[in-house]
């Protein structure tokens, strides 16, 4: 079974179609990147999968279940999204404990204290952060909380929208390492938006390159080693990024 299937996906805002004819199949356990310049429709694809961009046509399936257009509570237990901005994505008046317990409450799950304690540990936050508020946390700590929140219901699929691009460079690597560790430990599938090709090289198995709402190429991340891309737009993106991201010279 595929973790995510997108078939002939079109997505619009009002009368403007911003994503057109997208086909992607992400295997279970795979880490798949969406790359391309700003405004090419990457976030819109994640939002449509998450149910946050309702005006779409085509097929969206997650773990074998087609997505409908109505609210789908069960969906949250299969798939969760982490947003780019850890400052905007946490409610300022909710403690870490409240933020992490909420998904369990909504889904009527017990054992909440134990789960919160376990998840704080899993994302590398000391237990003393449990009763703190967002303004008492650094950007990296906030993103750890956002990741912990996304994992509370034990989803198998994570949609990651530039999860480190709002963070200081020194913190970015820590969060990427955490995401890598969590994927390995929990057998997660990632669909990850990034405009950073070294991040693709570090985190992902394959990448789809988007330009103006369409996918122009799907390639293995190893193509970044030698620039063996076929599409001219991908080649220009690769050249603009300075070529092989792993080369140390
Ligand atoms: N809520 C919205 N309403 C109207 N247009 C939007 C909205 N969000 C994004 N867009 C437009 O959709 C296009 C794709 O945006 P987005 O998916 O955010 O691109 P990316 O994530 O690749 O930078 C852009 O032209 C953007 O201006
Ligand atoms: Mg975006």
Poorly predicted parts: none
Shape: globular
Could you name the CATH class? Alpha Beta
Largest sheet: 6 strands, mixed
Number of DSSP strands? 10
Cα-atom Rg, whole angstroms? 18 Å
What's the CATH H-level superfamily name?
P-loop containing nucleotide triphosphate hydrolases
User: What's the arrangement of strands in the largest beta sheet?
Assistant: 6-7-8-3-9-10
- The CATH architecture can be given as 3-Layer(aba) Sandwich
Bound ligands, named by name, code or SMILES: adenosine-5'-diphosphate, magnesium ion
What class do helices, strands and sheet pairing give?
A: alpha/beta
Could you tell me the strand content as a percent range? 25-35%
Q: Looking at CATH, which topology would you report?
A: Rossmann fold
Helix-strand topology string: EEEHEEHEHHHEHEHEEHH
> What value does the average pLDDT take?
94
Summed up, the helix count is 9
Description:
The protein contains nine helices and ten strands. The chain is α/β, with parallel strands linked by helices and 249 residues long. The strands form two sheets. A six-stranded mixed β-sheet has the order 6-7-8-3-9-10, sandwiched between helices. Helix 6 (169-186) links the parallel strand 7 and strand 8 (189-193). Helix 3 (96-106) packs across helix 4 (112-122) and helix 5 (139-151) runs parallel beside helix 6. The longest helix is centred in the last third of the chain and has 18 residues, at 169-186. Bound molecules: adenosine-5'-diphosphate (ADP) and magnesium ion (MG). The site of magnesium ion (MG) has 3 residues, from helix 1.
